[in-house]
Amino acid sequence: MDNYDRYGNEEQSGSTNFGSFAAGIALGAMLGSVVTLLTAPQTGEQTRRELEKEIERASGRLRSGAEEGLDDGRHRMEDTIRNLEREIKTLRDRVDNR
Fold first, then answer.
1. Which helix (H) or strand (E) element contains residue 75?
2. How far apart are CA 14 and CA 8, in angstroms?
3. CB–CB of 21/15 below 8 Å?
4. What's the chain's Rg over C-alpha atoms?
5. Alpha-carbon distances, residue 6 vs 11, 47, 58, 80, 88 (angstroms)
6. Residues 48-69, mean pLDDT to the nearest whole number
7. Which end of the chain is more exposed for a tag (fewer CB within 10 A), N or C?
């Protein structure tokens, strides 16, 4: 059982941290954009418009990453439930056959 957890689910190294990593990348990109906009020589109104655009883009990326993370979690949960149900059936069969 080298690549499986105790419920028979295949372990995927690092995949559980992908959502956190993606959120960190998005946050870093957004902060970098904000700093760039705030230090750029343009009017306040132009800066506000650029900030609004960047915030919309970043929130879209974060939303997309969150949806992917939820989908991944949902699939893992469904796999775990199936494996547990299979294990329960096996144990019940063993008890019934004694």
1. helix 44-96
2. 18
3. no
4. 23
5. 10, 53, 38, 10, 14
6. 83
7. C
Higher pLDDT, 54 or 18: 54
Tokens 């957890």 belong to 5
Chain center to CA of 50 = 27
Q: Which residue type is seen at 19?
A: G
Phi, psi of 60, rounded to the nearest 5 degrees: -65, -45
Find all residues with CB under 8 Å of 50, minimum gap 6, and list them: 37, 42
pLDDT grade for 82, boundaries at 50, 70 and 90: very high
Distance CA 16, CA 61 (A): 18
Cα gap 18→68, rounded to integer Å: 10
pTM score, two decimals?
Answer: 0.47
